[in-house]
Amino acid sequence: MDLVNHLEGRLLFAVPKKGRLLQAALNLLEGADIQFRRENRLDIALVKNLPIALVFLPAADIPTFVGEGRVDLGITGYDQVQEHDAGVRAVASARRQSGEWKHGEKAKPQGCDTVMELGFGACKLQVQVPVKGEYATGKDLIGKNIGTSFVHLAQEYFARLELEQEGLVDADASQLADRKLKTKIIELSGSVEAACALGVADGIVDLVESGETMKAAGLMAIDTVVDSSAILIKSKAPSNPEMVELIAARIGGVITAQKYVLCQYNVERTRLADATKITPGKRAPTVTSLEDEGWVAVSAMVEKKRIATVMDDLTTVGATDIIVLDIHNTRGSRA
Ligand SMILES: Nc1ncnc2c1ncn2[C@@H]1O[C@H](COP(=O)(O)OP(=O)(O)OP(=O)(O)O)[C@@H](O)[C@H]1O
Ligand SMILES: O=P(O)(O)OC[C@H]1O[C@H](OP(=O)(O)OP(=O)(O)O)[C@H](O)[C@@H]1O
Questions:
Q1: Fewer CB within 10 A of the terminal residue: the chain, N end or C end?
Q2: ipTM surpassing 0.90, yes or no?
Q3: What is the pTM of this model?
Q4: Which residues are CB-contacts of 203 (< 8 A; sequence separation ≥ 6)?
């Protein structure tokens, strides 16, 4: 089947084609009942039960496709959106400085809107230097060689430090983009952590999650450029805004379900106020009278990560028959 000719009328939804975000993104699509079959080696898949086509793209390219309105929705890292935006500022700056930018010309309406955080892919883009070295702060690296895949964010980070050193604090985005750096930013496409040991760079700007890669390479973090996690983004003018809303509501429901459990217990009415302070629910707890006068049953959503403490505290205020249930899906309450 010629898939490209079947895209007409379908909302285009970009998903990372490989790497750290792929599996969690696929799990989210499954939870949202977005059904598709991806043919071997094809980067487009038609969704069977909705007028959507999935486009599998490198996470780094998704902000470009969504930002230019070629694709309506996308899942990628916040770091990638920030890098893309910094790249757009760098291009605008180059055009301004070369005189190509005409007076009064408006920037193209580029960029994307964040719909929601997705609760996975947490990591930090950090400035790293050799543990056994002479650098302790970002400023110590001014004028040095920096290896990174995030060239535009690194450029703006060092532009800020260089301008601060020259006495200009609070530089705006275009001043950062316009800066001719003393620091040399070296673009690397992977295995960035090897750059210092191999003598290519004095420091690097790279992603850190557990810190294992950094530690194994004999590096330590001295500053954070961006705190990131996976996000759902949409173009500024999606082809089908209702469908975007529907997908966002479904994905929001799955995320809430993953994040919360349902806690139910019985408690004496006299202790109800103490108990509901511990389980206020997302909006309010559901309280039902029991046959046994003086007792009530309470049911409330509780964040999964807090549930053990919540159960301890409920026991302390005299709650009994405490049970915790997994939530399969939700709607109408975003995470
Ligand atoms: N160690 C990590 N832990 C959590 N999230 C990460 C981690 N590394 C990267 N990410 C997130 O996943 C996104 C994609 O990174 P990943 O390294 O998987 O990309 P990729 O598409 O495989 O590209 P590359 O070929 O450059 O490795 C990053 O932008 C970041 O948001
Ligand atoms: O702090 P950690 O948990 O060790 O994770 C950090 C590593 O993960 C990412 O790389 P990835 O393994 O995705 O491969 P890459 O170097 O090819 O991008 C990132 O670029 C770091 O190298």
A1: N
A2: yes
A3: 0.89
A4: 127, 128, 129, 135, 141, 144, 145, 146, 147, 196, 222
